Amino acid sequence: MTRTAFSCAALALALACGTTAAQEATYNVRTLTPDTALKAALAALKSCQGSGFQVAVAVVDRSGLAQVMLRDRYAGAHTPKTATGKAWTAVSFRTSTTAMAAETQAGRPASGIRHLSDVVMVGGGLPIEGGGSILGGIGVSGAPGGELDDKCAKAGIDAIREALEF
Q1: Are 157 and 140 in contact (CB under 8 A)?
Q2: Domain segments of the chain: what residues?
């Protein structure tokens, strides 16, 4: 092998290794667009309104940062913070707040989670998933019970489901 051929081979190998190293050092993430988050929040709000409930709905991105918060005009003053907390909890723990509430009851191994700041262990928070990834979370607060908050949150996710599954 000539010196020039050797140098070219070494350069090609270095470039190939550099590309592989760069690919292993970074990754791509999918997140909700503001329009998609708003569509989910509006659908959840409409679902609750249809049942006669005054609620707040929050949608957070995959890192738990708020993208949308809607509060119906007569929803309680506590509902925006609670809805946001439910959405954050669902995305942070990658599960529904209803499931988390059951798993963190007093005497259970995970009961200490309830003492973390910003955690809301009441039904109404659901992770938003698509294509095998967590994309965000949705939280609803103000219906008379966590199971009804869950129902409205699910309506919000259902409204965007088709757009997420690709």
Answers
A1: no
A2: 34-164
Q: Which 8-state DSSP code applies to residue 120?
A: -
What does the buried/exposed string (b/e) look like for 50-75 if buried means 16 or more CB atoms within 10 Å of the residue's CB?
eeebbbbbbbbbbebebbbbbbbeeb
Residue with tokens 């993208």: 67
Query: For the segment 75-126, what is each residue's pLDDT rounded down to a tens digit?
Result: 999 999 999 999 999 999 999 999 999 999 999 999 999 999 999 999 999 9
Residue type, 128: I
What CATH number belongs to 34-164?
3.30.450.150
Task: Reduce the DSSP state of residue 41 to 3 states and report it.
Answer: helix
Task: State how far the Cα of 151 lies from the Cα of 54, in Å rounded to an integer.
Answer: 14
Place of tokens 């509060």: 71
Q: Which of the four pLDDT bands, split at 50, 70 and 90, describes residue 66?
A: very high
Specify the pLDDT at position 117: 92
pTM recorded for the entire structure? 0.84
Residues 6+ apart with CB under 8 A from 101: 121, 122, 123, 146
